[in-house]
Amino acid sequence: MVDWELVEKLIKTVKEAGISGLAVEEKGVKYEVRSEGGQITAHPTVISAPAHQTVHASAKVESETMAEEADVVAITSPMVGTFYRSPSPESPPFVAVGDTIASSKPVCIIEAMKLFNEIEAEVSGKIIKILVENGQPVEYGQKLMLVKKG
């Protein structure tokens, strides 16, 4: 049977990670979630049941209204590397959720090939979400933080 809680978690993961989609197979059900043009489509399909019992369900989830999206900006990784929230293990993080930042303020470090690169905010506003865990590998263009402009 389709696990709708898992579908919701997958949709949330696709939204937060800013990826174009993912596919997961669990307990005989294949779940595919895709993001295209601001809309997320989920397709859970039972694959272990006989053909006459196949379930195909589809759910579309609208993204937030354009007004809400217009004032939220993602700080993205300019390179492949490892994400660090602070300049050293003993130091406090550059920013935390709820902090107000100014454009050009350092918000994190990406370590690539033993070089530590400070990443600066390109917009002023308030940090509303940090999407990456400290020490986690990141890809080029991956969303690191969300900032509400203002």
> Per the principal axes of the C-alpha atoms, what is the gross shape?
elongated
Total strand segments: 12
CATH fold descriptor of the largest domain: OB fold (Dihydrolipoamide Acetyltransferase, E2P)
State the CATH class of the largest domain.
Mainly Beta
Strands of the widest sheet, in order across it, are: 1-2-3-4
Q: What would your notes on this structure say?
A:
By secondary structure, the protein is mostly beta strands. The protein folds into 2 domains: 4-63, Transcriptional Co-activator pc4, Chain A, CATH 2.30.31.40; 70-149, RNA polymerase II/Efflux pump adaptor protein, barrel-sandwich hybrid domain (OB fold (Dihydrolipoamide Acetyltransferase, E2P)), CATH 2.40.50.100. 13% of the residues lie in helices and 43% in strands. It has helices at residues 4-17, 66-70, and strands at residues 21-26, 29-36, 39-46, 59-62, 72-76, 81-84, 100-101, 106-112, 115-120, 125-130, 137-138, 143-149. It has a 4-stranded antiparallel sheet, covered by helices on one side. A 4-stranded antiparallel sheet has the order 5-12-10-7. The longest helix is centred in the first third of the chain and has 14 residues, at 4-17. Mean pLDDT is 79; it is low at 49-68.
